[in-house]
Specification:
With 533 residues, this protein is an alpha+beta fold. It contains 13 helices and 31 strands. The strands form 7 sheets. It has an 8-stranded antiparallel beta sheet with strand order 27-24-26-25-29-30-28-31, covered by helices on one side. The protein has a 7-stranded mixed beta sheet with strand order 2-3-1-4-5-11-6, sandwiched between helices. The chain is globular, with a radius of gyration of 25 Å. It is found in: Cytoplasm. This is Peptide chain release factor 3.
Length: 533
């Protein structure tokens, strides 16, 4: 009993979030580098001969230099077992990020030092605050021209509504970036790295205090004088640090550094692990589930098809919420109402996998999905049954009519569309009394259509026709037994149905929604009724 509790206590499971191009995936790579999980960090965008980022494993990610799917990576560091969830930064994939945050116990928010808080940062921050999880801020790209650190911390407080506490303070920026001042240790960390290394390897760091006479030569009189003034101001007028507020999501510790050159990455990792929490309890229909509960439980937060191109398999990603998992153990799939044995649990490093025998609360594992799992499903021990709360999807805002160019590829088309939809990347609808040979696809972002087309062509060998539709709003019809053909609607409003047979309406504008409600007495429409997984 003591051993399994000790294993749970050393787990740390967190997501990394940011606006596109803030350096989120680069920071992930450097954390893996310091954790010994990789020997050389890859580049998200770079020359043809450079290694790609480990977490960007899809071909389309390597080609475009963007993350389009969440990646899971586990590694050991200083006796901690760390599970990193690297999320897509692009707004079009915010739904995948939202689901991934449901599996995290804390979040690292990466901010571009030149741009500050950006649109996608605000959106993802709101998701974190809904769950009150701790949020740690890494202000990145200090090796480039940056805004004033005071302006950056003020903007976080004003726009995101969370207090900040600077754990370290930058010494210069851009070409003048010399390192950081560690406020707790009262030490200056200066960094030297080979310019030709491109941050691929760990960097050496040296520490000295403010009284060191060598500092004037190392930093220059101007930077040293500015630093002393900044430290005096921070210590005298800055907010007090409260670990309790951090863990309640009320205070965000702020770190400055450069993920690309590795400046400040390892000190950040060490402090982050010291402050962040062990696995958190999860809400279920019988109350909160304590991670130390000896009964195994987990929920599915992601499904990914074709991670192994040779086998064309599907992997369900589980967040273990309580107890210990043993390979081959029998669990109950609550939504399917059936017992099943999980014979080949996998530890993941992006698309690379390793069969494991044990896992614990806080861990993320992959299991083979024979087509029975859906996002939000609960798996638990047979002697303590319950269901975790479901994970809602975002209502799609873009729609397109999709069909295979070659009717002989119907079987591959249906399989590909169904599997990709089950991953949650898209939503599939049909015309009334229609077939799967032509479907209406709903997506949160336009880029998801490009990824859909790419994956159908490369993974399922199906070329498709795609016709964008002008509709932007979707509503589920809540009235039971209502014949949608009897409704009085504008000519550009379309009635469709989801794969469960629920009837929906898609509209070009909000005016069309109002018109439908005014001209159909008693009509009940829901924005989310059918959008729950």
């Amino acid at each position: 009993m003591a051993d399994y509790k000790k294993e749970i206590e050393r787990r740390r499971t967190f997501a990394i979030i940011s606006h596109p191009d803030a350096g989120k995936t680069t920071l992930t790579e450097k954390l893996l580098l310091y954790g010994g999980a990789i020997q050389q960090a890859g580049m998200v965008k770079g020359k043809r001969h450079m290694r790609h980022a480990v977490s960007d494993w899809m071909d389309i990610e390597k080609q475009r230099g963007i993350s389009v799917t969440s990646s899971v990576m586990q590694f050991e560091y200083n006796n901690y077992c760390i599970n990193i969830l690297d999320t897509p930064g692009h707004a079009d994939f915010s739904e995948d990020t939202y689901r991934t945050l449901m599996a995290a116990d804390s979040a690292v928010m990466v901010i571009d030092a030149a741009k500050g808080v950006e649109k996608q940062t605000r959106k993802l921050f709101k998701v974190c605050t809904l769950r009150h999880i701790p949020i740690f801020t890494f202000i990145n790209k200090m090796d480039r021209d940056a805004r004033s650190p005071y302006d950056l911390t003020d903007q976080i407080e004003q726009e995101l509504g969370i207090k900040t506490y600077a754990m370290n303070w930058p010494i210069g920026s851009g070409r003048e970036f010399k390192g950081v001042y560690d406020r707790a240790a009262k030490k200056i960390l200066t960094f030297t790295a080979e310019e030709t290394a491109n941050g691929k390897h760990q960097v050496e760091e040296s520490a000295s205090d403010l009284s060191d006479p060598k500092l004037s030569d190392l930093l220059g009189e101007d930077l040293l004088s500015t630093l002393k003034d900044d430290v005096e101001l921070l210590d005298g007028a800055g907010a007090d640090f409260s670990l309790e507020d951090v863990r309640r999501g009320k205070l965000s510790p702020v770190f400055f550094g450069s993920a690309l050159t590795n400046f400040g990455v390892e000190p950040f990792l060490q402090e982050f692990l010291r402050m962040t929490t062990t696995p958190l309890p999860r809400k279920a229909d019988i109350g909160e589930i304590d991670p130390m509960d000896s009964h195994f439980s987990a929920f599915v937060f992601k499904i990914q098809a074709n991670m192994n191109k040779a086998h064309r398999d599907r992997v369900a990603f589980l967040r273990i919420c309580s107890g210990e998992f043993d390979r081959g153990m029998e669990v109950v799939h609550m939504q399917g109402g059936r017992k099943m044995k999980l014979m080949a649990p996998q530890q993941l490093m992006a698309e690379q996998r390793e069969i494991i025998d044990h896992a614990y609360a806080g861990d993320i594992i992959g299991v083979f999905d024979p087509g029975v799992f859906s996002i939000g499903d609960t798996l638990c021990a047979s002697d303590k049954k319950f269901c975790f709360g479901g994970i809602p999807t975002f209502a799609p805002e873009h729609f397109a009519r999709v069909s295979p160019k070659d009717t002989m590829k119907r079987k591959q088309f249906v399989k590909g569309m169904t599997q990709i939809a089950q991953e949650g990347a898209i939503q599939i609808f049909q015309e009334l009394n229609g077939s799967m040979e032509e479907v209406v696809v709903g997506a949160v972002g336009q880029l998801q259509f490009e990824v859909l087309e790419y994956r159908l062509e490369n993974e399922y060998k199906v070329d498709i026709r795609m016709e964008n539709l002008p509709h932007e709003y979707i509503r589920w019809i809540e009235n039971e037994g209502l014949d949608p053909k009897s409704l009085d609607l504008t000519s550009d409003t379309r009635c469709i149905q989801d794969l469960k047979g629920n009837h929906l309406l898609i509209f070009v504008s909000e005016w069309n929604i109002t018109w439908a409600l005014q001209h159909n007495h008693g009509l009940q429409l829901s924005e989310f009724g059918g959008a729950k997984l």
